[in-house]
Specification:
The structure is a single chain. The longest helix has 27 residues, at 282-308. By secondary structure, this protein is α+β, with helices and mostly antiparallel strands. The radius of gyration is 27 Å and the shape is globular. It has helices at 17-24, 44-50, 71-83, 131-150, 156-171, 202-210, 218-226, 244-249, 282-308, 318-321, 340-345, 351-355, 359-363, 367-377, 425-448, 457-463, 466-470, and strands spanning 29-33, 39-42, 88-90, 96-99, 105-117, 120-129, 175-182, 187-195, 212-213, 230-232, 254-262, 265-274, 325-330, 335-338, 382-391, 397-408, 414-423. It has 3 domains: 17-130, PAS domain (Beta-Lactamase), CATH 3.30.450; 152-307, 2-Layer Sandwich (Beta-Lactamase), CATH 3.30.450; 322-427, PAS domain (Beta-Lactamase, 2-Layer Sandwich), CATH 3.30.450.
Length: 473
């Protein structure tokens, strides 16, 4: 087996070549540090992930890899960890941000494992970039929120303000607008504007409501014609943006404008603006494009209903056909409305059977979970990814992930909940089986002595005493 040249750090011996080859074969970033935080090894995968040259991290503190605002806190956590080192995930339950050489931050998952060597304790960290996972989770939550808004809508105009608020607030934009294409008149006109609390943009809002555009005319008309998103970091530089003066007066500097598409046809345009200058974010564009497609399908379906003369009573609405369970409930646990997917999830045959249930008594395995959800909903308008255990008609437990919004009375008090329920029982079981399979695979590979084929160093360290023997600092 070809041996890579071990990295050297002033005042330290080299890492064993076999150990280096093992670390270099991993499809994860690996960093080895002293308890004081000094980096004595980093594999090439990690260096590429963080944008460093080969060996450039040697001798630096591990805090160089942590987002600047978290470094001081990380020093305290590292000091505490050294008092009782153990194998565990770093930052469990929290979003952990790493920092590249260029200063850009990105979310990571870090597994820590202490290794006792002849020269003392060494900490091995496995670093995984979870940017794509976080983006997918964010998109999933937003699409569920949008589905909830659309589920009871009579028309896109009816829910346009709620849609704009839902999308803009979830993604951190301060202003949003929704524009629809009038195919008969050949115009793009505004149907909703929204400003975040504390954002004063009356002139910009008034101009948005007043203006309309022909295809290819000015900035929004160009997006309509091209059917492609536009990201603007500096609105002042876009001369064809007709509301540039009003935007400047309101402190709005950057914008994301996307077409609402069904196939290649543009049905409308979504517009979001921020107070600060924002660099182009492809992940953000992908999320909003997916939501735009979701809205486009709704618009197309409603237009088809009108064209075919199908009444609301006969047409199966989004609420009825959703693959996720959807329900509305009171604070006391009474169910006001449920869709067929919810009925099937709980193992019942008819909607009226489920409407007769009480969530606290008949659905939640542990009623305290619902009390926690209600307590959280008292201080926030939305919740997402809230996992609970329910029971079906037969009493069998199912793992359910809830996302939804608070329903408030006229005085602002919490009156009930609207939520989407996703059965994740099978997913969690598969994840557990996958983790077990990984452990068994690691054990088998260790027994065969094929160290360079391992994909998870933490498992190697946990299973075999041999690793500690081949680490010589």
């Amino acid at each position: 087996m070809h041996h890579l040249q071990p990295q050297r750090s002033p005042g330290h011996k080299t890492l064993n070549p076999e150990f280096v080859n093992l670390l270099e074969s991993l499809a994860n970033g690996v960093v080895v540090a002293e308890p004081a935080g000094t980096i004595i090894y980093s594999n090439s995968f990690l260096e590429r992930m963080f944008g460093y040259e080969r060996g450039e991290l040697l001798g630096q503190s591990v805090e160089a890899l942590i987002s600047a605002e978290l470094r001081e806190l990380h020093v305290r956590h590292r000091t505490h960890y050294n008092t009782s080192p153990e194998r565990r995930l770093m930052g469990a339950g929290r979003d952990l941000l790493a920092c590249r050489k260029d200063g850009s931050a990105f979310p990571v998952e870090v597994g820590l494992s202490p290794v006792q060597t002849t020269d003392g304790m060494r900490i091995v960290a496995i670093v995984t970039d979870i940017t794509e996972r976080k983006r997918a989770e964010r998109q999933s939550v937003l699409q569920k929120d949008v589905a909830l808004v659309l589920s009871r809508a009579e028309s896109i105009q009816h829910v346009a303000p709620s849609l704009v608020e839902t999308i803009a607030s979830a993604l951190g934009w301060r202003f949003g607008g929704l524009w629809l294409v009038d195919s008969e008149g050949g115009l793009l006109f505004n149907v909703a504007v929204w400003s975040a609390p504390g954002t004063r943009a009356p002139a910009f809002e008034a101009a948005s409501r007043r203006l309309s555009f022909r295809i290819g005319e000015c900035f929004l008309g160009r997006v309509w014609a091209a059917g492609k998103p536009e990201w603007v970091s500096d609105l002042a530089a876009i001369h064809e943006y007709l509301r540039v003066r009003e935007a400047a007066a309101s402190g709005l500097h950057s914008a994301l404008v996307l077409p609402i598409l069904v196939g290649s046809q543009t049905l409308g345009v979504l517009e979001f603006l921020a107070l600060e200058s924002r660099s182009r974010d492809e992940g953000m564009i992908e999320i909003v494009s997916a939501v735009g497609s979701q809205i486009g399908q709704f618009i197309e379906r409603k237009r088809s209903e009108r064209a075919l003369g199908i009444s609301e009573e006969r047409y199966q609405s989004l609420f009825e056909n959703a693959v996720f369970g959807i329900f509305r409930s009171t604070l006391s646990g009474s169910l006001l409305d449920v869709n067929p997917a919810m009925v099937a999830m709980l193992g019942y045959d008819r909607v009226d059977e489920v409407l007769a249930l009480n969530l606290n008594r008949d659905v939640y395995k542990n009623p305290q979970d619902r009390r926690r959800l209600i307590k959280e909903s008292e201080t926030t308008d939305r919740f997402a990814g809230f996992e609970v255990e329910w029971k079906t008609k037969t009493g069998s437990p199912i793992q359910v992930r809830l996302s939804g919004r608070s329903v408030r009375a006229k005085d602002g008090s919490l009156a009930g909940l609207e939520a989407i329920a996703e059965d994740v029982t099978q997913r969690r079981l598969l994840e557990q089986q996958y983790r077990q399979a990984q452990k068994m695979e690691a054990i088998g590979r260790l027994a065969g002595g094929v160290a360079h084929d391992f994909n998870n160093l933490l498992t190697i360290i946990a299973v075999s005493e041999d690793v500690r023997k081949i680490v010589e600092i």
